């Protein structure tokens, strides 16, 4: 399980509907949102994901959409997060 990062915690706290939805989630569902935010490689992507999480939780969504899931929970999802080696010239 991942710890909720401070920036996500602050964003959720700024929107009462999102905060209530967050508190209603199972620990596993919370972990999916946290890992989705943490998996962003760029700061701009992370910011967009945090805002999207706030908006989607307020709208009633319970899991991040279109994401293979936390690679720490499912070994089959690790391929989405591994760095690919550059192709060699032959």
How does this structure look, described?
By secondary structure, this protein is mainly alpha-helical. 50% of the residues lie in helices and 0% in strands. It has four helices and no strands. It has helices spanning 6-13, 16-24, 27-38, 43-58. α2 (16-24) crosses α4 and α3 (27-38) packs antiparallel against α4 (43-58).
Instruction: Return Rg in Å.
Output: 15 Å
Mean pLDDT: 85
Could you tell me the number of beta strands?
0
| Helicity range | 40-55%
Query: What global shape is seen?
Result: globular
Question: Span between N and C termini?
Answer: 43 Å
Largest sheet: none
Low-confidence blocks of residues: none
Strand content: under 5%
Write the layout of secondary structure elements.
Blueprint: H1 6-13, H2 16-24, H3 27-38, H4 43-58
Helix pairs in contact: 1-4, 2-4, 3-4
